[in-house]
Amino acid sequence: MQESVNQPIPPILEAADYLQFKVDGDRTAFEHRYFERRKLLTCYTLYLQHNFDEPAFHYFEQLITSTLDEVSWCLAAHLNYDHFEYATKHTIDLFAAETGQTLVEIETIFNKRLSVELRDAINQQIDQRLIQPFLSQVWDWETKQNNWNSVCSSCMGIIFLLTPELSNRAQLLDRINHNLIIYLDSFGQDGICTEGLEYWTYGFGYFIYYFDLLKASQSSVPFDLQQIKQIAAFPARIQLANNDFANFSDVSADQPIATGILAYCQQHFDTAIPVVKNVSRLGFDHCFRYAHVSRNLWWSDFKASTLQPYRHFFKDAQWLIDRHSDWTVMLKGGSNQESHNHRDIGEIILNIHGQRILTDMGAPIYKDGYFGAERYQTVQAQSAWHSVPCVDQQEQLDSVERATVDTCDLKQAVNFQLTLNNAYGHAVTRHLSTDEHTLRLTDTFPTVRKVTEHFVFATEPILVENGCLVPLANSQQTVYFNWTDASSSVTKITVQNHIEQNETYYRLNINLKEPIFELSIHLIGNQEAQSCKRKSQEN
């Protein structure tokens, strides 16, 4: 902190920086600068709670003033450029709401240290940019069943709870609570967040931050506590192995999780939490949200847990998990109209001995067109780069209709089948069965002539006759994929992930000769694997 005190505050993003986004649609450069400023605000807010340092506090006051002077608290991607000047200070997006929530907590925590003038300026800007716009209209995010509703509503709720002399507080909180009931209903009875774990951390996390303050301010809360407990259990239910969680949709395989939220849920709802070894690091969230980082520090006192075998079908989301002591498979049904959707109905994710075998690429860099017409031009969202069949060289359809569950018997092992007609416009079924040692997949295509099975790997598979091998790191075993007679190839691709890191994936392409595909996956010894490779080379 001492070094940064001697550095100038990063410059404010000007109107020209926002308008540049309208020209090129590139979020990256803008957001780097935006989040660097929020990182400083978060770090100084936390540092000064425990270390009073006059030069640092003076820098902190300048940083607050600089934040109050910003053209807008919104991200460039979230503004209406047809009414740009008005929109800059009258739009409530995720990040304007987060900024207001951070500032109102700063004003509360440092009330006696901040000057009266600065406290008044904070309250004035929050009123102008957030409270008055909230009063002036009903925002579209208020009825959404996704993270936008939860984050914006929860931040506004925290602002209403902490803003002094707010005469209509009760009515405003009623509106906020109504919004959040809509959000909570998006999870269904099984508590699954179809947006994925990162968006559970984001949306449900902000709900918990508001819930905690609301509960402390009044005798009861208008939420279904059993529903909240189900949602709180989500991370533990989708953990594949240590440090690995299912990542359907716009979620990375190496996804961050906020230990503050986990600890709160364990302590207040007696919820099972996933296996975590350390408190979330400062930069676990590349946006450096103060709400996340502060609660990680304040709340992360949790009891250690262990990963247990678990087999369950989540009926509302149509997610299946079969977790054993040394391997886990998940299969996804659902529809192709879910929030943060990929075309991935029928996708399989597989982890063996803690190593991701079949994977999902997760989220790309968010660009302007990704949340519009260009979404499925992006590799990560295409069905062609998920572990699903490709029928007649076509992408899956964007049907709102869900897959149909034909069979779901999980008593002794997995015997599960989905009909995927709504994803393909043809008769397609995917059947999964497992026992302790083998996973079997059978796909049928009675009315289709040309089918290519795709499987996406985190490491390069080695092709052998009617199969492929994936060596396990630091192990004497190899994963063996064996299928019926078909030609096969491997396609390599390198893409940039959500935080602009290059990642390489390998797609196994199996061109079917018959309208049925049968695959078995099991472990073999490395010597047997070598024998398979030699036999394949000889043939």
TrEMBL record:
Look up the domain of life of the source. Answer: Bacteria
Protein location: Cell envelope
Q: Which SUPFAM superfamilies match?
A: Chondroitin AC/alginate lyase
Question: In this record, what's one Pfam family?
Answer: Hepar_II_III_C
Q: Which residues belong to any copy of the Heparinase II/III-like C-terminal domain?
A: 311-447
Q: Which InterPro entries did the record assign? A: Chondroitin_lyas, Hepar_II_III_C
UniProt protein name:
Heparinase II/III family protein
